[in-house]
Amino acid sequence: MKVFKTSQSLAEFLSNETRPLGMVPTMGALHLGHLSLIERALQENQSVLISIFVNPTQFNDKKDLINYPNSIDEDLLQIEKISEKILVYLPKADDVYGNIVEAKSFDLAGLDQMMEGEKRSGHFQGVATVVAHFLKTFSPDRAYFGEKDFQQLLIIDHINRSLKLKTKIIGCPVVREKDGLAMSSRNSLLTADQRKQASKLFEGLQIAKSNAKKVPYRSLKIMVNAFFEKHNKITLDYFIIADPNTLKEIDLEQPVHQGRAFIAAYLGKIRLIDNLDMS
Fold this sequence. Notes:
Helices cover 39% and strands 19% of the residues.
């Protein structure tokens, strides 16, 4: 395993590295979901690059940035156990942004106007800034992202195409705990009681899917909201079923024959998200 602290040293090394190159951008605090992305990248590429960078411009709440899980030493041990051939990019903010740490402004085709984009102002401009920088600088042949952050995945794919980059963006299925909770770095911040309650997000999605074709979407929303009202230790932020390509909310008066359900909820101050294909 080789660790690089600067983009210049990494780019120079990559100029002689065997292609194809697969990249897995992360913010660290690695879990089995991340590891599944790394494993797939290893299967499909000759070389694999993992970035660990907690991107400050995608946090609209400074407290959230400060409290974000940090386990660099453990992350590196996990990566090394998978393969000693993996390359790791571990930059500081100034290596990514230079002297001024701020997000650029991208045309995100309206994909940032709902759900996480509405709730977290500027979040996706920050994501787009750092991912575009990585793809331009290192030119991976493939880049791997989890479908748990489905809105992010669509936005990254849009940016990749709009900038006419050559990287293939690959979305990978959500990896879940035994009780259905989507794996997330934020899960490590939950108390024992909150962790028990957290599986309710997936339960809510399952209720939606099992009833999707039986009742109009409007009734389905009422049903899911009622489910969360019974469980007052978890606070529903939003539940939306949208077109998986445009993220536009579907017709309230029609049963759900296709689409993707998106959910966000709070457990104390910890906010979790999830999604599920309704077809």
